[in-house]
Structures
1.
Amino acid sequence: MTTKPLTEPELDEIYAFAVQLGKDAGKLLLDAAQARIGGKGSSTQAFSEKDSAVDIVTKTDEDVETFIRTRITRQYPDHAFVGEESYSKGSSRAYLINDATPTWCVDPLGGTVNYTHLFPMFCVSIAGGKPAIGVICVPFLNQLFTACRGRGAWLNETRRLPLARNPIPSMPPNAPSNCIFSCEWGKDRKDTPEGNLYRKLDSFLNMAAELWGRGGKGAMVHGVRSLGSATMDLAYTAMGAFDIWWEGGCWEWDVAAGIAILEEAGGLITTAKPPDDPLSARIKDARLGSRLYLAIRPAGPSDTETGREGQERTVREVWQRVRELNYTRPAA
Amino acid sequence: MTTKPLTEPELDEIYAFAVQLGKDAGKLLLDAAQARIGGKGSSTQAFSEKDSAVDIVTKTDEDVETFIRTRITRQYPDHAFVGEESYSKGSSRAYLINDATPTWCVDPLGGTVNYTHLFPMFCVSIAGGKPAIGVICVPFLNQLFTACRGRGAWLNETRRLPLARNPIPSMPPNAPSNCIFSCEWGKDRKDTPEGNLYRKLDSFLNMAAELWGRGGKGAMVHGVRSLGSATMDLAYTAMGAFDIWWEGGCWEWDVAAGIAILEEAGGLITTAKPPDDPLSARIKDARLGSRLYLAIRPAGPSDTETGREGQERTVREVWQRVRELNYTRPAA
């Protein structure tokens, strides 16, 4: 099945649908969390005390995905749907998004561990198109990140991203120094020197250590941040709050909405995997499904370079300091 | 000068004063941030484009501290005041809080680097007493953490802390496994094997690595989080969102309000420095001014132990996995 490109009014309509869906799904997440919260304003207890927090979260995850899929299927029966929960239960690990069918890519609950602990960095993430539309709703913080191709990226529908735009800051001349570097420890914690844990740690250390330390690789970033959610990391990079996000192991639903928002805000996203020639390799757009991502925040021009030049310079500096991570797709 | 203990009505009055002061100071932080934000709802540009973000932040830091100190001095002329900005400019590095004089301990802007980047994890932090009162206002997230001795700890004055209390979760039986571990990379990034950077990394790795990895020290925590603000880390530990916070290098204004809130919520705070006998050493309350802290979230009882027993068990497990950090007070 091949479909015609969407008209702009059609895109407007789908965008409005996605934004409302994100808000409604975010409210479901919040309502389920409320059941474990006491004090004034708490709802009635919806779960038996015997249910563990993990059971509750799994059920919420499934319920919210079903809610989103049902709404989408009813409104757009011709569209395809890729969701974290249904994918996990399916037998294939293939990359299921193609150019021929308009596809929704949904994570009903990003930051699952945060949600279990009621740490506010959890969200619902909805992407549509290739992705042309991105919606991330962070209900506990009342933050809604939205973007649609050609329509800008927004926080809470009123503040354009990146947030600092008086003016939009250029990349620091000595980046990654003076940058906030966002990264996650991940779930692969094998205690083996060639495992992802040690490859990540080596990379983090190069980024954090004093300038010229670590055999010249020390970058002395201004700060290292780990929020426990790739989706939130990307949203804050689009916002301009993080300068650099580097990660391996993400699935497409973790990043599809965030990529749409980041790119519409003017950010750059490419591969986390350092090429053989980091100083000269062409900087290609990230391939959704590749599981390896490096994002740079939106950047304004400086006296000596364009915003894009500053971003590309930063990509090359990061590539020289990070190691290749070992995340492949399981056999399709 | 020795003062009489405060009566309960006096404490109520001071608490109400501190809460309002925290809200007002938080609004000042937000207003100053708005000047760099564009889009609908932005205020007029208050700074010349030539001012760097860092200059703006330093000015904001000083202005907000002056605002807080002036209000306190006018209301309570007999009270002492210790603030981050005034301390930094003073010549002494001595610990200035004593039991004889009611003392306010204030950080006008916690999470300075976050503020510079408009990452929402910044706050104003106000503690009073020893500290009996703690107020942390996070204006960008509309989060206000407050506590007063005997009056409970609260989020936004309506939700009692810890947040999850249906029931309050016990510590996991295999803690630190299944815990969220909060820690920061800090500013000391010297590339020397015995420096704080490597001591921290060793400790982080022990906490993160697979169970029984790292020579038996691997704890496979559920997640590692770094927010870039000790004050925010403590607030989220009091909330129950983080299970464990371990840090060195904090000053008293970074933690005074957070400690008051954490303790009133039922959390435990002791020293980050592992004793010679981690399995049997007495677990003493943290000493404000010690610069080394280990906090455990509020915990409910399990079938086999009290909440306090679960917290103490967790402290001992952490002590066995972390290294001593080298943060002393500069010569007083």
Note: Chain B touches chain A through 59 residues (CB under 8 Å).
2.
Amino acid sequence: MKRSVKIIGIGSYLPKRIVKAEEIDKMFSQSIGWSEKKSGVKQRYYVDGETASFMGAEAALQAVQDAGISLNDIDCIISGSGTMEQAIPCTASLIQEQLGLHHSGIPSFDVNSTCLSFVSALDMISYAIEYGRYKNVLLVSSEISSVGLNWDQPESSILFGDGAVAIVLSKSHDHSGIISSHMETHSLGAHLSEIRGGGTKIHPKFYDEQTKDDFLFDMDGKALFKLSFKLLPSFIETLFSSTNLSIKDIHMVIPHQASASAMKIIRKKLGVDESRFMNIIENYGNMIAASIPMALYEAIKQGRVNRGDTILLLGTSAGLSIGGIVLEY
Amino acid sequence: MKRSVKIIGIGSYLPKRIVKAEEIDKMFSQSIGWSEKKSGVKQRYYVDGETASFMGAEAALQAVQDAGISLNDIDCIISGSGTMEQAIPCTASLIQEQLGLHHSGIPSFDVNSTCLSFVSALDMISYAIEYGRYKNVLLVSSEISSVGLNWDQPESSILFGDGAVAIVLSKSHDHSGIISSHMETHSLGAHLSEIRGGGTKIHPKFYDEQTKDDFLFDMDGKALFKLSFKLLPSFIETLFSSTNLSIKDIHMVIPHQASASAMKIIRKKLGVDESRFMNIIENYGNMIAASIPMALYEAIKQGRVNRGDTILLLGTSAGLSIGGIVLEY
């Protein structure tokens, strides 16, 4: 049964600083073209003083305006991000603060499944909206990857970018809705992409020359892709099993922008051509949980996704998790 | 309308190391009785090598056994904790791994609203269970506070303890269910209790003599309590407004174990006597998000909460948030 929720507004914020592939090439003392060839990323954005809550609030203001409502109409704020601004409190509270809603009382909390945080949060909160608990949920993915990259690992560090996307999710009164959603976590791959430190296991107070790499992103890209690729067919089958649809009925696939090469192979495996597969990695890099909503934002603004279209949000994340939502926009 | 969910099993794990008030007194070169008098905490537990995912898995195994089901019956794992084990991946994935469910595919993600993470997660996932998305959700709060305490701040550092609690939450086929739930976030108080570092704003790589306190818990207890206390009456009114109940109908209040003095004042403000107010702080301290489920665990095991009883889960958290759930156990 379709869940009656509708994305009534979307907004984004991109950091001031644009980092071109050439800058990355120089950093690695490589010839021009090296990083773009390896990653497919022509440019990405890195924060230049912006915080996650600032970016999130900017994206939120745009989403609220796009929805044609006011901030006072928002009755729940969720940060669906793979990174936090502070260890305490949750980022959603800090976004509420940045929005000047100090006295609002709007419930604010975080949902985290790394790169799938946006999808997991959208999936979960849709039931509460369907049920009437909330009317207009502000869901924000605001990510700063640049601070946690390990420049000794070009494979991962040349991929990522920063930025924020927000949507307003409301009760649908027309055909818009979630047709199907599914998530799988296979902890077999829990350590294929991780930041071991920063939590209670290796607390920041143990930061030193010996441990410093534990606080930076560490990825075994090949193993990660191999496992994801193996799990994908049965995942897609399950996702569509409760519907009358197949991948052929999807107007646009909105994938996580993991890496250009992974996306190409996934696209071919799904059997969709480029016209039905949003690929924005060359302009933004991998923006963690903000990648999928950023690709959706671009698809909407470019007119490649229109009301009534059936779209598929699809991604993998550290965990290892796969998540997908089939929805009528 | 009551949400048909039922806590069918509960389990806990306490770290091996018991830390008595006397040990704390000595650490501060104070006379015996000093810390207990200030905090109301006679003892608490600190991890001695245990990780959050290990503790969470131990509590989960107990909860699953208590529920009379097997691990294979679990179809969703949520970590509702204010602390993370690692920055990436989410703690729920690591708990899945610890449970040996590597290949299970069970969707696993985190919900975070600091001390209210358990309550927020229970509240949100209840709609998905009601709707039939999941049958048996494993909700785990596993907290290690001890690693992040600032011993230059006795006011907060003498309060906290570590430990884990897990529940199995399932569709209810009898009277058990959530009668009402409500959450408010007032970011006016976002910085009254915080750990400024550890996220993207002050990354662990900036840890040094100057910044070290930014990575430890910092609390203005008086201001925090003042704001919470001011917000409580209207919060309680809203929580009960959709019900035919009042605080008089609650068999047992299961409060967040913030501090002994705060709990005493809150209890009096609510107008309930000690027999209807679970106070376990003297044996466990403040266990962050694990406090409320730990108090529930004790209430059930001591026979102070029985099937059919109407109970109130109630707490405040960094953010500042207030959250509550009225449920028939």
Note: Chain B has ten helices and 13 strands.
3.
Amino acid sequence: MDFQIPYQGYTGKYPTKMQAFYHAIKDSIISGVLPCGTKLPSSRELAALSGVSRGTVNQVYDMLAAEGYVECRVGRGTFVFYDAQQRPGEPKREDRDDYALSPWGGRVMEQEAQLYSAGSVAYNGKAPRTADFHAYATDLQRFPHEEWNRCLHAQARLLYRQEGQADGRGGLPPTEGDQELREQIAQYLRRARGIAARPEQIIVVNGSMQAITLTAQLLVGEGDKVIVESPGFKGIPRAVRTAGGVPVSVPVDGQGIVPADWDSRLLFVTPGRQFPTGVVLSLERRRQLLEWAYDKGAVIVEDDYDSEFRHRGMPLEPLKALDGRERVIHIGSFTKTLLPSVRIGYAVLPPALAAPFAKAKALFEPLPAGLLEQKTLAAFMASGQYERHLRRMKRIYSRKYESLSRRLADSLSERFSWVKSDAGLHIFGWWRGSTQAYERFRSQCADAGVRWSEIRGEDSEGVRIGVYFHFPHLTEEEMEYGVAVMKRLADS
Amino acid sequence: MDFQIPYQGYTGKYPTKMQAFYHAIKDSIISGVLPCGTKLPSSRELAALSGVSRGTVNQVYDMLAAEGYVECRVGRGTFVFYDAQQRPGEPKREDRDDYALSPWGGRVMEQEAQLYSAGSVAYNGKAPRTADFHAYATDLQRFPHEEWNRCLHAQARLLYRQEGQADGRGGLPPTEGDQELREQIAQYLRRARGIAARPEQIIVVNGSMQAITLTAQLLVGEGDKVIVESPGFKGIPRAVRTAGGVPVSVPVDGQGIVPADWDSRLLFVTPGRQFPTGVVLSLERRRQLLEWAYDKGAVIVEDDYDSEFRHRGMPLEPLKALDGRERVIHIGSFTKTLLPSVRIGYAVLPPALAAPFAKAKALFEPLPAGLLEQKTLAAFMASGQYERHLRRMKRIYSRKYESLSRRLADSLSERFSWVKSDAGLHIFGWWRGSTQAYERFRSQCADAGVRWSEIRGEDSEGVRIGVYFHFPHLTEEEMEYGVAVMKRLADS
């Protein structure tokens, strides 16, 4: 049978045959090598052709069918069901089996599968030791579990026993979030960040992505250009595209985003610490961004994802604190300062946007999710324990940051160009070599139990591979092991 | 100054002057009595004209400004900023101060403010006793708090201390929800509802509204007609309209929705117990709906919001259990069986729609919200305590149901035409008299501390006022008091 898939080229990249096989076929479909309508071999034929088991082929076909890349026609076989020729922005309405997806649904399906996936470096689980710089985690050993649990248990008693009856007539928490938590956040922002916001402007969200997506849905119409950083958090262009907008990537330099007179009314930016490069936007540039927004009547979304952890230097004022004309939406999150499973973030909105944002959120959650944890956090903040915990973690993370920075600079500066930063929970570098050399290096490190996060981005010098190393959850020994492995493989 | 608002007519309806004032102005704006661009009196002038305090007027102006009905032009005064003439479906892009809302955002703003609001009957807090049939609550006295808290504490210990580190490499929970919970739900649905679904088809959501809205976003395009029940849950047309669709209201009769050859590819329906009338859809009609879906290639969303509580008769199989061709999305929720603040629901999807649904959810929540409560519920179900609790609550709620039904039938059958039901947590009736008589009755009852929920809907006899009485959280004494008050006021 005349059927070729470039399976061999994938085996090195993925830990299991099944994954390699899946990606080989999927990429062939997406790239148009296997055009829409192509009949695929039966699982028996393909197993014989490729040397993998028939069970594996069936599993891969099932995955592709579930994702809508292929469809099984009863009694006739399996066919490619994805049109690579189709222009983006014109999603088909009939591409999910025969469920007619809306244009919005079609755009959802065009995005990559997962935001926080197991990552591009698949860890094969065989190395005796590991150093996982990719994991999305905090230092749980140092978390004040007892104090947190005390708040949790007290709040559980109050909430579960009294809810809907505390005032005898069903007082329900609004979609905007627990009132006490909104007040605590307002106080914290005033004290720690210089942001003067009333609790009514603060809406609690289930992690910052909810704030990003709701903002995009509210402000981005079909074809609207939206300015995003490159490299940047990939959730942002995803939210913009799904809303029907067109993300316009703007490169960052050593001082962060370069302000310009963009033809747009919406900008997503990470001034506190550019994601992922870690550079801090200068006050001068902050002022320029605000001038641009005032001039254009634009909105700036300030994604302040981890500026709590500053290792040295003075913090600059957030855009929101500098904004005298209510053009900034400030997004913050507790997922990096507390426990990753506690999905609490917040948006600080211009007063006139608070109601639209709340109505949009209420469409998905008329009553807030995870209210118990919101109340627990409010109590934890009110007792002063949150800021005590932050101060302690700042010291701990600063030590880890200094240690890992030094190790990476000492051992791997030939391979990576490290970007200096004053803050944050990861260290960023640009790969200095070729893509092929990088792929080989990455794969060898993964085999030795060492992995990290990566991004393909532009900076002022063009498209490059960037890597970043999360360290909060790692011990000194793990960081030492990880860097030693990388150095050994880089030198080999 | 020549400025009239019909404030007097509102004072009886609202508990505070401010609220009456707010609604009086807002309704005048919405109805076009105060057209877009009208200059409103200064707060000083309006206070003098109306006899309310200037502070109250300012507060009302602030609320209207925050919601975008009026805008304050610096140095010039307050102006109406809402165009009542504007055709629905053509939302303005410039109507929120000068923040340009997207068409989606514009549609969000066209919806009513809150889904679970304090309700149309405002309770004035002055009555010595109350009977609140409107409150959204369960019988917390009978909830097994100890058992639930034991699960909660055990799960908190496990989750918070091990997360991201249980397997050494940051295994993150998927947006689809806790795996153990999805398995428990699958088992429960098989056992209790006859629905054969694999855990992969089950996606945990933050209450059923999230499932409704994500489904509408995924399947409804601009101008698409979507069949909805009338009367019905008002969240559904809201989600449809926001997605750009056109809800087509279909009246229900004494057996529920009347099947027809609708020109549509999406139907939202409550077969288990029509909301809010409570009638159960016959097997014959269930089959007709499925035939329609097969014929049209349509999707049916089965909103199964409280069929767990069946007081007599045999349960009919859910549409999802009868569906041989994967055209049904089944939505269920734990908010009525557990604690209202625990916002956990689920959608059972056709396999090919599971991935689009998960990707859409991930756009808002790449990691699930309220994971601790998901894990607590999974443990609670796995230990058998959930079904034990359900059995116990069925007995308790059946007794309350029988008692309230009898009281209402005995005392208020002249005013309401009660709809018989075999299941559920509320009792529904149609008002027999005029709208004015109803408004007077409702307002007098509210003054005596008795309120309920209401809906304006169609049934086969035309547009009517429907009322429904939630009882789970009420004691025998409260129900007795409530019905006695209503009877006294109805007879006066």
Note: Confidence is low (pLDDT under 50) at residues 87-96, 117-124, 164-170 of chain A.
4.
Amino acid sequence: MMLQCSLCGAAVREDSLLWRCGCGAPFKADFGGIPPMNRKRIRSGEQGMWRYGASLPLERPEEKVSFGEGWTPLVREEWNGMKLFLKLDFACPTGSYKDRGMAYLVSRLRDQGIHEVIEDSSGNAGASMAAYCARAGIRCRVFVPSYTSEGKCVQVASYGAELERVPGTREDTTRAAEKAAETAFYASHNWSPWFAHGIKTFAFELWEQLGFTAPDAVLLPAGQGSLVLGCALAFEELLSSGEIETLPKIFALQPKNCAPLEEAFREGKPIPGKVRKTETIAEGISSAEPVRGREVLEAVRKSGGAVLSFSDREIWDGFVKLARRGYFVEPTSAIVAAAAERLSRDGGVGRRDTVAAVLTGSGLKGSGKILSLFASPPED
Amino acid sequence: MMLQCSLCGAAVREDSLLWRCGCGAPFKADFGGIPPMNRKRIRSGEQGMWRYGASLPLERPEEKVSFGEGWTPLVREEWNGMKLFLKLDFACPTGSYKDRGMAYLVSRLRDQGIHEVIEDSSGNAGASMAAYCARAGIRCRVFVPSYTSEGKCVQVASYGAELERVPGTREDTTRAAEKAAETAFYASHNWSPWFAHGIKTFAFELWEQLGFTAPDAVLLPAGQGSLVLGCALAFEELLSSGEIETLPKIFALQPKNCAPLEEAFREGKPIPGKVRKTETIAEGISSAEPVRGREVLEAVRKSGGAVLSFSDREIWDGFVKLARRGYFVEPTSAIVAAAAERLSRDGGVGRRDTVAAVLTGSGLKGSGKILSLFASPPED
């Protein structure tokens, strides 16, 4: 399998084990002659997301690393008169949508015979990587910021991964992981060309669960933007196979306190610039330096959607509204409810449009934090 | 729909709103002429457990209260040479298998036009009841022991349920709820005749996911024993429709520190007696007075299985073994790994038998407790 630089177009072999191009940009996967997904290519006998295995090539598919992840519920709601479908990806095996990406990423690591990896994460991705490496028998070192809560660390450590706590910011953690990667494979989900292909299965599921139609709009939390990239990959495949006629509008959602993609989108820039980052309750999407920012902005613009930003107060209000309807999610995930609230009141989607939103992570990951937010909610 | 006393056989109408028989025993549901499940009755177009909706009668099925729960992954493992299938029911919407029972129970409450309910729970059932009542628009009061951790309470409260903290033991909480039930409907999942019918869908899924065959043995954590009852209901249906030829052996698993069912089973008694209860890490199945103890013992004996008990040390060792394979579960759920360990080493199931085990609750519900167990594990 070949990798292609997303910026300069240079091609390298996957077994070179390079995690980024010499020019500094991330790689994309080149799937060569594999036809795009259509309804005839669905393997209905397979568990979960692997029903779309035809679009997730592996050298030894029978040895894929899987917990049966995916094929999560899609639940219909009315939101101020708007038809909203919630995709319950927090009900994945490790409690977040990241499992889709990790199942494919770690399966490819096993295909390559890799025995030891390094990942950096502030939470969900580290837990997911640790679980899939445990199943694959791959040694896993997860770098986390030293401020990461014990509750999040205990899940990673339970799976048997080695935790490396790094002082400083989330970005300092990434730099420490990159440095360690001089002696072991850096399997960063953000740099990986495979991760977004695993993620794209959520969008195939939307399409199938909606009776083989695309929604008109999709609401996606965006930090590094893997959901946006996965969404674009899936609907591009379905468009090119003739299964759908138009791409859904992608709304990428960021916290106001860390919104590099939103700023670049608003200013018409092709890549995100430096931003001042302050604390936010949407910690899972608080990414000041999105690795694939250019690709994410391109995907949003091509879809006719937008990048929107929300205050912590709006996100918290969204959390409470979701919980009162029976959805207990991470505060990060609640940004989709803030978006549903704004779009349903101010327009932005049509009255008869079908809107889908991904609930990305379980509230059980942040019970302590949620408790303190009830005690002192964010101010306006 | 009629209810029938599980002990004296008295029949009452469901709309009497009685939650137990005048003789003091719990009711069973009388489904009358509804034929048992077979593969032709599966509704493959329905989400999750509702593919078995033909065996979950409702007056207004289109108004069922559902988050698309069920159809959870089944993952194959080898355990000391034993073929073990793990059913990932912790990946239900509220983080536990209870969602199956609550989806059906709360759907029936809505059918009956009930607007306010009382439940008592030490954790998972309360959270699940609160979520489904939120979706159904039913006011919900959940009674919990005052020692219940804040982490568990925050999930229940987030869904908008009213929490009532009761001093004393788990059994004192039940008595407080029963007293409050003089003025509102007591929807206790343990007393409900519907709950186990929702639970039975996990066993239908086992059958379908194993290629329409029954496993040889099933490992089930048992406090009140709803999994045992649901398992028996499902496989009895499949036996009477001719889909399977023998019932799987049911192994009901209890912590040594609270094992009324195990003691009665060992001593050949028809109902559990009083037991001394001490603290256990398997708090989800620490039930000193199982409401349906007689039915549970009957089901286990009829299947040719057994009730087994395990020390906290064995359960904790099971937790670690599961986690190292990528499954992060509540310590309660880890009792199935303790059982797999014992049965695979000492026999008890055949070398070529197919064994299935339910992983009932998410480890994310007990991160704090798991952290302290790593620091000071239970002693032998």
Note: DSSP finds twelve helices and 13 strands in chain A.
